[in-house]
Specification:
Strand order of the largest sheet: 1-4-5
CATH topology: Rossmann fold
Order of helices and strands: EHHEHHEHHEE
CATH class: Alpha Beta
Largest sheet: 3 strands, parallel
CATH architecture: 3-Layer(aba) Sandwich
CATH superfamily: 5'-nuclease
Strand content: 5-15%
Number of domains: 1
Structural class: mainly alpha
Number of strands: 5
């Protein structure tokens, strides 16, 4: 399962249902995009050191997915599909969706716009 930024945040904030879902996952991955978004948030936080340690522990536990040319092709295909359907989604989430397709993995996110991407499975929590 690929974690979106809000899923990673929920897990690190010990949100019970998010912790349960992530703890039961066979495989966990964090896109480099999510690591960047989270690092940006950490840089603005008063609790920088605590969050930095938490992020590093999570990165040690997960596969970090980089973007390559295969990802770029999935990105282009998804962006074209969503443009034709009149359902654009944020650029960073397009990259995350492309990684989901590339690796045939579900995304854990609260962002319902991932549901516009055909073939993508989304997990969420309360």
């Amino acid at each position: 399962m690929i974690l979106d930024t809000n899923a990673l945040s929920a897990y690190l904030d010990s949100t019970p249902e998010a912790v349960e879902i992530i703890s039961e996952a066979r495989e966990l991955a964090i896109p480099v995009i999510v690591a960047g978004e989270f690092a940006f948030g950490i840089a603005q936080s008063r609790h920088r050191e605590v969050y930095e340690r938490s992020l590093n522990r999570m990165l040690d536990r997960c596969t970090v997915l980089d973007i390559g040319i295969v990802t770029a092709r999935h990105y282009a295909a998804i962006r074209l599909e969503l443009k034709a359907a009149g359902k654009p989604i944020p650029s960073n989430d397009l990259w995350i969706a492309a990684l989901c397709r590339q690796y045939s993995m579900a995304v854990m996110s609260r962002d319902s716009h991932f549901d516009f991407v055909s073939g993508l499975r989304r997990r969420t929590w309360r």
